[in-house]
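Journal club prep — side note

Before the paper discussion, L.F. wants everyone to see what a predicted structure for a comparable chain looks like in token form. Sequence:
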Amino acid sequence: MTKIVVGEPQLNQRSDRGDHTSTLCISVVIPTADRPQTIGPAIQKIFANTVQPYEVIVIDQSRTDRTLKALSSFIQAGKITYLQDTGLGVSRARNVGWRKASGEIIAFTDDDAHTDLHWLENVRQTFERSDLNIGVLGGKIIPFYEQKNPDWSIPKRWEYLLPAYDQGDTLSLYEGTSLPAGVNYSIYRSLLEKFDGFDEDLGPNLSRNLQIYGEDADLARRISQNGFSLVYNPNCVVYHPVPLSRQNQNFLNKRLISEGATFAFMQIKSSNLGKDLVSLSKSFIRYSNFVLQGKDTDELYYLRGKILVLLKCGLFKQPPNSL
């Protein structure tokens, strides 16, 4: 069994190529870290697709060898390219993956997601259209529950954090502030090269106490600002599990702190110190009012994360890894 450790001068172990009737080749890239129980089923769903991927690349940042053992049958059969990455962070893992990939299209998904049987077929058909000027292609993200907490349900305004996304059943552009999510995110490799991939200051990272998300949104926004379209295809479907650990108020509160932190960091990237200070003062006043009134609202946790990042990363210029 060959382990390819990122950074070592070894030849890449390529997966078997699928059969193709199109000139467009799709490389599927999956970052993983300490999820040996879900990565295998996720890969099986990809190979069950009606259109086979050109290659499947798994970037493993696990702290033990359990994920490698879970993938051994795929590796020995030559079905996947396995990259063991000693770095941290989903953005780094995705960047490592697409840079190793050979396909014209890079389709990203998660190590616990289940792609629809027609996912790759619909990705390919959408990119084959000449009228869309695609920057990033996304689609439906449908949550599924193996177990359900009967005593709690997430407020509808926060369902996208599960994650979940449904813009209807019509091929269209993303609406309003909505942007494609990394679990269902396909893009030309050439655009990843042009825009230097994902910002590694963003995205889940095991080295941080406070997670800052938004690496997928940040890249999509940069691409959109340069004239490319963010396309939603309802037939590009990915199913995402919602474990019991995400079905409680404690999860939502922690996730909202990260959501506020993410918004603040994205604001810092695109503004100046003066605007950051105005935003900080407004957020602090609003937060203080909630505290003085004894209100324990969703927005209280959101503002807590926002204020922390505006202070540390905006005012004091500390890096995200200090959070």
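L.F.'s comment for the group: Residues 5-17 have pLDDT under 50 and may be disordered. Keep this in mind when we get to the figures.
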